[in-house]
Every structure is written in C-alpha cells, then in structure tokens.
Amino acid sequence: MKCQDVDLAQGILFIEKSKKGKSRFVPMSHSMAETCRDYAKRMSFSANSNGYFFPSSDGGKYTRHSAKSTIQNIYAKAGISKLPNGRYPRVHDMRHSKATHLLMSGVNLIYIRDFLGHASVLTTERYAKTNPEFMRKAIEESTADNMTGIKKYGMEQKKELTEFLKQYRL
C-alpha cells in the first residue's frame, strides 16, 4: 500500500487491484485512522509520497514471503506458535478474524462483503457458517428475549391459537 493510497484525513484506504483484479475504497475505524496518523507522523510520511506506507526492511514493497515472516514473528512475540486447530498462523487469518469480529458485532453481511471485496455475499456467509461462537451468540440472544418476561402472546391469543391448532389434530 503506497502512502498516496491512504487518506488519513477521511480514514479511507484505496486497495488497488486485489487478487481478482478489482480496486475498492475501504473505511478505517476512527481509532485505526488515529493510529495510522500517529505512525505517519513518526515515519515522516506525506500523502503525496510515492513510498510504501508500511515499507519492508529495505524500504520497498512487502513480498508474500516477507509478509508471512513478519506476521509469524508477531504471533511468536504474542506467544502463539500454532492456532487452536493445530495450524500455523497465516496472513489471511487476520483478515478472517476481522470479518468474524465484524459479524459478531452485528455488522450487516453486505457491508462485510464490501469491506472484504467479495463479489458475492455467499462467499462472505462462510464466516457465519463456520463460526460456532456466532451460532452460540445468536441462540443466547434469542433465549435472552424469552427470559426477560416479555410475552409474545397474551393469554387470550394463546387460547385462540390453541383452539385453532386443535382443529387440525390428526
């Protein structure tokens, strides 16, 4: 990502040509934009710079290998050598985690799709389908409504429904 692709004033990133050849604008959270502004000041970056916002050790662009190595070093510093599923951490795990956290926070799947740059919401849905924590949260929320004492039907409505259903008893 080049410095000119980061709009720190508005908190927007320009992602140029992802793996599918599409470009898009992605918003940053306020706290992420503030962190990036502080970083840019420390690094003496300007919006018009042709350099990379996160340069590699030689000042150039990160390669797949250098990105993988950097991420694995970060995980190692955090004391994580393997993930709970036994796999070694990958760069893509951070993207997957962000999508899952957005989903768990109640962000609409359409917004997550656009944030990730997916062409179809079906691709994005896999984050909901593969996450047991999301299912647990959904079940707890639906149960919590029933435990608040809110009655979905009054006694008269329940009685009418029961009488209606009795007509169709086999």
UniProtKB/TrEMBL annotation:
Residues of the Tyr recombinase domain: 1-140
Keyword Nucleotide-binding: no
Record keywords: DNA recombination
Presence of the UniProt keyword Phosphoprotein in the record: no
InterPro entries hit by this protein: DNA_brk_join_enz, Integrase-like_cat_sf, Integrase_catalytic, Tyrosine_recombinase_XerCD
Entry superkingdom: Bacteria
Pfam family, one: Phage_integrase
Protein name, UniProt field: Tyrosine-type recombinase/integrase
Phylogenetic classification of the source organism: Bacteria, Bacillati, Bacillota, Bacilli, Bacillales
